[in-house]
Amino acid sequence: MTDFLVKLFIRDKDNVNDIKVRERYGVLSSGVGIACNILLFTVKYIIGTFSGSISVISDAFNNLSDSASCIVTLIGYKMAAKPADKDHPFGHGRVEYLTSLIIAAVIFLMGFELLKSSAERLVEPLEVTFGAASVVSLVASILLKLWMSAFNGKLGRRINSSVMLATAQDSRNDVIATAAALIGLTASLFTTLPIDGLMGIAVSIFIIRAGFGIVRDTVDDLLGKPADKELVNEIKEIVMADKRILGIHDLVVHNYGPGKMIASCHAEASSEEKFADIHELVDEIERDIHDRLGIMMTIHMDPLDINNKEAMAIRDALKEFAKGVYGGLNIHDFRMLAGSSPTLIFDVVVPYDCKAGEDDIRGEFDRFARDNYGEGARVVITIDRDFAE
């Protein structure tokens, strides 16, 4: 069904890095969500009113909030697709993240209102009327929400959309919430205890929890988080495809919203390669990354004196030593100033969870250099972080 809808409504469906194609995916996701959630709200509200079930009514308003969220999402996708301009040279892609925050606010508001209503039902219980129509509608709702979760999950993974993936997660939460409403309704057959109110509270908590999850994920995107590991591996694979590239480090990916990323890295090449040839190679790699991944890439070349056997042996020894320092470190950008007592210049990549101070780390490498290359040997170290960690 998902593939059929994509084929029917989205032109150039495989060009997922194009902002207009992303917009079409967003419109499809939002349109399907609005239609399904309005249908569910209407059916559940009618059944909940006639049966007197607050948990069913709560679940109905949960679907209504989902429908409102889909409308906001639709507007967000439209705004995010606007081209770059003088005031926003990197485009408007981050509007998607702002849209997620608005959705979260709506979810929080609805969740707390339903929590209040359910708590009141505990204080003043009302009779709940069990009906086959209620059970059928709730079961149908669970099945539809499971499909919507799979639908948005598939679209979200296809275009790498955090909003769609959050919508898929929200649909899975709705399945749990609807199951709680079904339990409350069924319990009315066996007890006069206010199980319905308790289930309504449970539904409200799931709604609030979903809102919190969206806020957490969206704030991470706005503050800046490491690039997706799969994307990092794709970039490294493209950069390292030519045998003249000997290594890659200092990879940084800046996310200005879906479909708009800027990245940079350092790539190592032999110092004996012709500058013009390496420059042309780097240009080709940058174009390839843009064409395949939609990323504006900048590559800085680091020369490596691979024919200096002494320097390469010392570099390899340092790399091996670094693996055992404070849980495992790494080095790059190695250079050596030769002399009776060599000067070793390199960067040390320190994990974020490493508790050691910079002076302690420098001290370890300084001792290693003196012990192995003479008392006059010295190290010049730059502490570095792996921004793709």
What descriptors fit this protein?
three-stranded mixed β-sheet; Alpha-lytic protease prodomain-like; 3 domains; Alpha-Beta Plaits; 389 residues; alpha/beta
Please describe what this structure looks like.
- The protein is of the alpha/beta class.
- It has three domains: 2-223, Up-down Bundle (Alpha-lytic protease prodomain-like), CATH 1.20.1510; 226-304, Alpha-Beta Plaits (2-Layer Sandwich); 308-389, Alpha-Beta Plaits, CATH 3.30.70.
- 62% of the residues lie in helices and 14% in strands.
- It contains eleven helices and six strands.
- The chain has helices spanning 2-9, 19-51, 54-80, 95-123, 132-159, 162-187, 195-223, 229-239, 275-293, 309-322, 358-373, and strands spanning 245-255, 261-270, 295-304, 330-337, 343-349, 378-384.
- The strands form two sheets. A three-stranded mixed β-sheet has the order 1-2-3, with helices on one face. A three-stranded mixed β-sheet has the order 4-5-6, covered by helices on one side.
- Helix 2 (19-51) runs antiparallel to helix 5.
- The longest helix is centred in the first third of the chain and has 33 residues, at 19-51.
- The radius of gyration is 29 Å and the shape is elongated.
- It starts with a helix and ends in a 5-residue tail after the last strand.
- The model has no long low-confidence stretch (mean pLDDT 84).
